[in-house]
């Protein structure tokens, strides 16, 4: 008889990809995904610990699942992902109704772990055993055991090219939760992309914590392969209509990678290049290894290669010791780059990070004030940027259709609504749209016939 599986995913695209892999692994064991936790046989919470808020959400969800666990004694409740990796014991203490805690490197053992739990082995025994027996790097296991299967948004998929991070930004848990950088062999990546394209996938996003350093550290990958070469090889696979990648570190953005934006037709002109701060003093304490000027120079050169490139970024406000002048330097950088979009966060102390030990913490209200100022200005810029598209014809890849028209995405990653669309287009198909309206977060237009 089939068993039902509910997965709740928090956090980044890495986690979304891990949840997909978990779903595929467990589908082979007869688990069928369900949309509601109520009545599920297995509930897995795939967690994120990048910021304090993300972690708080995990604990409050786990607390709210306690009654379900009491109602249904057969239910197995598991925690995977970064919080599990870093705070395993704390979860066990605070949430004794959790049956299983699985770190980021161990999701491939889930079928086996669930099996043992069903047989009555205790979760503590499993944890001890798993630690001793874990040896297989995740990528290799993925290729040996799991072939990608279609998902609801079947036309676009993530492909993991590297995992972990060696940068040790002083505020960041990732090197602790995801481990050292490891690059996946190029042949395996190309094989996975070819399989996906065969299944009808049209857009590929290459995924890693720091994709720009693909092939340069702790490589499993072959000699002489770097990220631009990989990008060119993936772009050349027949059927890859759109190619994107995320995430990048500015210090690893080379001239050769910039050139890719000019030379690779199907590489989308959209680049997420987290800057974190516009102040050199803060960047130094963050251990980012570049100055604001280095970053601005790279942005300028990038725009010379591809003038229509849409840039997005991540910003942290209220890093320990951030003065008003430091914050103004961030605002200044925002005004110079004029990002098409950004993700901005209040700094929070994370376990085992260096910045958690730094003095001179910025008070909570001040962090909120700076965040609001940043976001207000970014919203204005988004709107101004979006207005630049009015009157232009852009290509969209359709994402969803309904009786109220359709929604698609441009190569620059803007969402476009076409409320009056009468043509019969399916998700994944391309259409030309003339933009007539701009909002802060999306564009509106009419399909051109
Ligand atoms: N506090 C606030 N934001 C953080 N980020 C990472 N660590 C922290 C932290 N301790 C942000 C960075 C990163 C994004 C994924 O999350 O901006 O790029
Ligand atoms: Fe964290 Fe820095 Fe690595 Fe990004 S580059 S994952 S912010 S340590």
Give me the secondary-structure topology.
Layout: E1 3-9, H1 13-27, E2 31-33, E3 42-47, H2 52-64, H3 66-71, E4 76-81, H4 82-94, E5 100-102, H5 110-118, H6 123-133, H7 138-145, E6 156-160, E7 162-163, H8 174-178, E8 182-183, H9 186-198, E9 203-207, H10 227-235, E10 242-246, H11 255-263, E11 270-272, H12 280-285, H13 292-305, E12 310-317, H14 324-337, E13 341-346, H15 364-387, E14 393-402, E15 405-409, E16 415-418, E17 430-438, E18 443-447
Parallel strand pairs: 1-2, 1-3, 3-4, 4-5, 6-9, 9-10, 11-12, 12-13, 16-18
Antiparallel strand pairs: 7-8, 14-15, 14-17, 15-16, 17-18
Helix pairs in contact: 14-15
Instruction: Please state the overall shape, judged from the principal axes of the Cα atoms.
Output: globular
Give the class-level CATH name of the largest domain: Alpha Beta
* Overall radius of gyration: 23 Å
What is the residue-averaged pLDDT?
89
> How many structural domains can be distinguished in the coordinates?
3
**Reading side by side through the largest sheet, how are the strands ordered?**
2-1-3-4-5
What is the CATH superfamily of the largest domain?
tm_1862 like domain
Q: Give the % helix.
A: 25-40%
Task: Tell me the total number of β-strands.
Answer: 18
Question: The biggest beta sheet, please?
Answer: 5 strands, parallel
Helix- and strand-based class? alpha/beta
Bound ions, cofactors and other small molecules, one mention each:
5'-deoxyadenosine, iron/sulfur cluster
- Classify the beta-strand content into a percent band: 15-25%
Low-confidence stretches: 132-137
> Can you tell me the CATH topology of the largest domain?
pyruvate-formate lyase- activating enzyme
Any guess at the CATH architecture of the largest domain?
Answer: Alpha-Beta Horseshoe
Please report the distance between the alpha carbons of the first and last residues.
Answer: 50 Å
Total count of helical runs of at least 4 residues: 15
């Amino acid at each position: 008889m089939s068993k039902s599986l509910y997965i709740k995913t928090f956090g980044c695209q890495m986690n979304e990809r891990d949840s997909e892999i978990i779903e595929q692994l467990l589908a082979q064991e007869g688990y069928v995904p369900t949309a509601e936790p109520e009545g599920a046989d297995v509930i897995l919470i795939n967690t994120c610990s990048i910021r304090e808020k993300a972690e708080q959400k995990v604990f409050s969800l786990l607390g709210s699942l306690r009654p379900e666990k009491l109602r249904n004694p057969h239910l197995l409740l598991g925690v995977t992902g970064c919080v599990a990796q870093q705070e395993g014991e704390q979860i066990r203490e605070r949430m004794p109704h959790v049956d299983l805690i699985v770190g980021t490197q161990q999701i491939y053992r889930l079928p086996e772990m669930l099996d043992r739990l069903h047989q009555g082995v205790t979760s503590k025994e499993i944890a001890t055993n798993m630690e001793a027996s874990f040896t297989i790097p995740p990528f290799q296991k993925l290729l040996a055991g799991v072939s990608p299967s279609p998902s609801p948004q079947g036309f676009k998929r993530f492909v993991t090219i590297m995992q972990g991070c060696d940068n040790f930004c002083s505020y960041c848990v990732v090197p602790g939760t995801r481990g050292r950088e490891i690059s996946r062999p190029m042949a395996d990546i190309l094989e996975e992309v070819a399989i996906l394209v065969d299944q009808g996938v049209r857009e590929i996003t290459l995924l890693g914590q720091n994709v720009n350093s693909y092939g340069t550290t702790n490589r499993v990958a072959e000699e002489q392969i770097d990220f631009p070469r990989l990008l060119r090889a993936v772009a050349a696979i027949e059927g890859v209509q759109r190619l994107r990648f995320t995430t990048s570190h500015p210090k690893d953005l080379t001239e050769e990678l910039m050139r890719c934006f000019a030379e690779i037709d199907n590489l989308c002109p959209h680049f997420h290049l987290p800057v974190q701060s516009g102040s050199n003093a803060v960047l130094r304490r963050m251990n980012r290894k570049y100055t604001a000027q280095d970053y601005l120079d790279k942005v300028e050169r990038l725009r010379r290669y591809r003038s229509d490139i849409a840039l997005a970024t991540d910003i942290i406000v209220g890093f320990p010791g951030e003065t008003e002048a430091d914050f103004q330097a961030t605002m200044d950088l925002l005004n110079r780059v004029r990002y098409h979009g950004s993700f901005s966060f209040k700094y929070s102390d994370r376990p085992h990070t260096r910045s958690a030990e730094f003095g001179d913490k910025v008070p909570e209200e001040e962090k909120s004030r700076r965040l609001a100022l940043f976001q207000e200005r970014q919203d204005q810029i988004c709107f101004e940027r979006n207005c630049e598209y009015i009157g232009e014809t852009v290509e969209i890849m359709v994402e969803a259709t309904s009786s109220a028209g359709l929604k698609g995405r441009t190569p620059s990653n803007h969402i476009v609504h076409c409320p009056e669309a009468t043509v019969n287009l399916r998700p994944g198909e391309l259409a030309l749209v003339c933009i007539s309206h701009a909002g802060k977060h999306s564009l509106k237009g009419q399909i051109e016939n």
